[in-house]
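Dear colleague,

Following up on yesterday's call, I've attached the two folding results inline so they're easy to grep. Please treat them as preliminary; we haven't cross-checked anything against experimental data yet. The first protein's sequence and structure tokens come first.
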Amino acid sequence: MKNRNSKIAMLLVLALSFMSYTTLKDKTVKVEESSVIWKGYKVGGEHTGTINLKSGTLSFDGKTLTGGNFTIDMKSINSTDLEGGYKEKLDSHLKSDDFFGVEEFPTATLDITSVTGKNGNFNVKANITIKGKTEAISFPLLIKDNTATANLKIDRTKHNITYKSPSILETIKDKAIYDEFDLDVTLKF
């Protein structure tokens, strides 16, 4: 009987050891707070604004980032560099079919497909889907304590957003809106 009890105790210890190892090894954390600032460029100027993250998670193996996925609330896009009627006009235009078509496409997603790096410095490959069109992108991501930061460049023409694009319409010259826009992202988890 004593031998049987010691075998059961040993199996229990092994099972608990395995459970705690897998818990420490693979961990997915929810993004608790975020800041996403966009910047778009045109001939002779730029506009900036914010957009809200609807949900997001990051996955880790110990302290090494291994994945993540995010859903962006496209209806929340707004400009922060304008006021009054100019702000209302730009915000409305960004939400229209000329740009993000938020009635038909209320969310965008980013899914991390692979990660390289260590010690908080990572190079991320991901698929970003905007207006139903997916583009493979890569960007550096820095993690310090419980905060991740990244700067992304997105080519809007890859997502069928071609309004006043100089690569599509060479004739617009001084009214061009450049194809790439920036996202400056901070995630707290």
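Below is the second protein, in the same order (sequence, then structure):
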Amino acid sequence: MTDRQSTLEEDRPLMPALVRGWQCRCPSCGAGPMLRGYLTVRESCPVCGEDLHHHRADDGPAYLTILIVGHIMAPLILWGFVEYRPDPMVLATVFTIGTVALSLFLLPRLKGAMVALQWAKRMHGFGHAA
């Protein structure tokens, strides 16, 4: 096995890539924006030129968002109802706004982290030489 082959097979640093992905930055350089718009992943990084079109995030970020938001909001709804006994319409309004806001915050960050995970693990074409 040549040095080039062993370099291609090694995983890239995972934690820096995930942090950069969470920040919606290029997992390779951390300087260029990963997303164009709210959820559209760029074809390549405008700073370092790393190809990003290989990603296969699909529905993963949405499922993770639902999972996280559900696990945060369900206990809060129960606690808020038991502790304060608000009017049901007030409770529904407050937690609807909170759920939507948290979902809109998490979705692009989780998509960036999922693309960064695929980049770090050389999945779906990220590991092939150009």
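For the second protein, one point worth flagging: The chain has four helices and two strands.

Best wishes,
A.L.
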